[in-house]
User: Fold this.
Amino acid sequence: MTDQLTITLNDGHVMPQFGLGVWQMPEDETERLVGNAIAQGYRAVDTAKAYGNEAGVGRAVRATDETIFVTTKLWNPDQGHDKALKAFDRSFAELGLDWIDLYLIHWPVPQANLFAETWKALVRLKEEGRVHSIGVSNFTIETLERIIDDTGVVPAVNQIECHPRFQQVELRAFHEANGIATTSWSPLGRGDLLADPVIVAIADKHGRTPAQVTLRWHLENGLIAIPKSANPDRQGENLQTLDFRLDGEDLERMAKLDRADGRTGPDPDSFAMGLD
Ligand code: A2P
Assistant:
């Protein structure tokens, strides 16, 4: 396998810069697909309570001797201090591991206004040691500032929608200024990003696929990328991004693909699935 790139988080823990996302992976196929990814060289898996497949991830991770970095996330209806502690216990039991590497608040749900007390519960879980690192997902500058001001504890990670058509330049600058690592969800952008002529041209130049060029863009920008694939061949294709580099001209051309309307997923200011 190729050498893994890693990021040292603000709490000193080390996280692979590349991993497998398992959103929409059916529970009954998850163990096999994650096991296949680990056999190919993946060393990180990103799941969530809301994906319904933590148990399958846990079985695959327990079945290997490799050290796998496991992320899971707290679902929206489980926000609130005590509910968050119970939700963690359930995810911990589903995964069946000795510890969870990274636990994230999945969405801020600002209208429920529970994210700050939820964050306090995560701070407590970290102090207890069953989770090594804590962070958030889909947080904005405003919601990040609130939890940092409240607790003084800076999330290790904010996992956000990020890809060449939605580069999140301002939020990433805030992360950098505050020592927060950025994980990109939907790193391949869904939709027709992989058919973009600029990406196709750069792929041709390097003898790579558009997906590999797109994933390499994340790595070159210091982002953690967790592409989801339920197809073993594409899982392997996506891993082959660790052994080539984009040049300055490629990166300049890709910087111009950013679009104000490039978001493909929900808006974190209004997303409240599970609470409707
Ligand atoms: P599949 O699971 O059939 O491989 P993202 O992580 O950006 O949300 O993208 C996930 C989507 O992109 C999935 O539909 C996945 O389909 C597809 N995908 C993953 N890897 C590749 C690839 N190398 N080339 C084309 N499509 C891919």
